[in-house]
Amino acid sequence: MFFRSLLQASALLPFLSSSTSAQSTTACNNSPSLCSRAYNNMTHLGAHDSPFVRDKSTSFSTSGNQYYNSTIQLDAGVRLLSAQVHKNSSATGEDEWHLCHSSCDLLDMGSLTSWLKEIKTWMDSHKNDVVTVLIVNSDDATASDLGAQFASSGIDDYAYTPASTSVPKTWPTLESLISKGTRLMTFVASLKETSTQYPYLMDEFTYIFENDFENESPTNYTCTPNRPTGLTTSSTGGRMFLMNHFLYSTQLFGIQQPNSTYVNVTNAETGLGSLGTRLDNCTSVYGEAPNFVLVDFFNVGPAIQSVDKINGVTSSIAGRMTLTTAQPNENVDTGAAGRRDASVVAVIVAVVVAVAFGM
Ligand SMILES: *[C@@H]1O[C@H](CO)[C@@H](O)[C@H](O)[C@H]1NC(C)=O
Ligand SMILES: *[C@@H]1O[C@H](CO)[C@@H](O)[C@H](O)[C@H]1NC(C)=O
Ligand SMILES: *[C@@H]1O[C@H](CO)[C@@H](O)[C@H](O)[C@H]1NC(C)=O
Ligand SMILES: *[C@@H]1O[C@H](CO)[C@@H](O)[C@H](O)[C@H]1NC(C)=O
Ligand SMILES: *[C@@H]1O[C@H](CO)[C@@H](O)[C@H](O)[C@H]1NC(C)=O
Ligand SMILES: *[C@@H]1O[C@H](CO)[C@@H](O)[C@H](O)[C@H]1NC(C)=O
Ligand SMILES: *[C@@H]1O[C@H](CO)[C@@H](O)[C@H](O)[C@H]1NC(C)=O
What we know:
Organism: Paraconiothyrium brasiliense
Shape: globular
InterPro entries: PI-PLC_domain, PLC-like_Pdiesterase_TIM-brl
Bound molecules: 2-acetamido-2-deoxy-beta-D-glucopyranose
Protein name: PLC-like phosphodiesterase
Number of domains: 1
Order of helices and strands: HEHEEEHEHHEEHEEEEHHEHH
CATH class: Alpha Beta
Keywords: Signal
Signal peptide: 1-22
């Protein structure tokens, strides 16, 4: 009797110790099943023009591409944030690098440094997450210009430096990036010259190719390489694939705006020109899933659902905020108080889901 319980107890020991060590990396990017996946063997959900929000803070600017800010995007599972960076001179005539939509007169969301600080703050309290930042270098900032902003924000502490400037066959696993503390992947479109001082700034088109992004019709999406030029579907040089998946609509005077009226289909799993369908289509073209998808208004759909599906993530989604898929009514106050309540609800939903899946 005593002997038997001793045996049982010792049988439990390895189980207990392995479950404790597993606890320190219970989930990577919200899922235990993603920890052992190479960075380039999964799909990362990207928020197109992440800082350009269409909410009260911008008086619901029609130039806005997202209904929720970058912090909430990360809370809700987005792991790639793209932004346009423009040169904007300060009152004293010094160069400042700002996040502006097409032009700083149209929509100026502040300095690159303050946005990077916001992302760093999120990463400080989310230690099992790999985040990708994609800078659209609209005014040809040099690596030193951009690197200085990364350094002053402090986010460079997390930056991953590639082993070489040629395309790797396999990128590190999420687990490895997390354990080494190099959880920030930084790509710049484009960087004329890399810098030994800021070696973590990676030229996007050295490592990544994209399909066309200027699309206005749900029947006009393509999987074929558009940038960099000279690639074909059968010859992409081992680059990762970023799938642009959003629609523009052209307004008066030729001004392009995100098509928000069709986005519930654009970001859905099924339907004409839906994210789910397009992921399947491009997966069949390349024999593997796109590595990144870039969407507008990511909460609609929700886009994360198609990404979970293609990643094979079906349960145990740890610590992700669930947002409403509704498009905000621009006349209703969707202030911070309401969102805080939403995040409490999200935690409760996550717990209920975890219990239901027996996790
Ligand atoms: C990608 O991940 C899947 C799922 O874990 C695995 O089966 C496959 O072998 C991986 N492929 C590569 C090339 O690592
Ligand atoms: C800088 O941004 C402000 C708006 O924040 C704008 O009025 C000004 O024209 C910009 N300057 C340049 C040089 O882009
Ligand atoms: C879709 O593509 C076709 C063929 O290239 C083109 O003629 C048409 O103008 C495009 N539609 C839109 C809305 O851009
Ligand atoms: C958005 O796209 C849909 C589908 O092509 C189209 O019917 C609708 O008119 C577009 N909306 C705008 C505002 O252009
Ligand atoms: C998208 O929104 C339109 C207009 O509200 C609605 O008719 C349609 O059923 C919605 N489609 C999906 C897939 O949610
Ligand atoms: C895209 O995928 C859908 C369903 O997943 C399929 O019906 C359609 O034929 C595919 N189209 C192309 C061009 O591969
Ligand atoms: C992001 O939005 C939330 C909800 O509206 C708000 O509480 C938070 O202060 C915002 N964060 C930043 C950095 O703007």
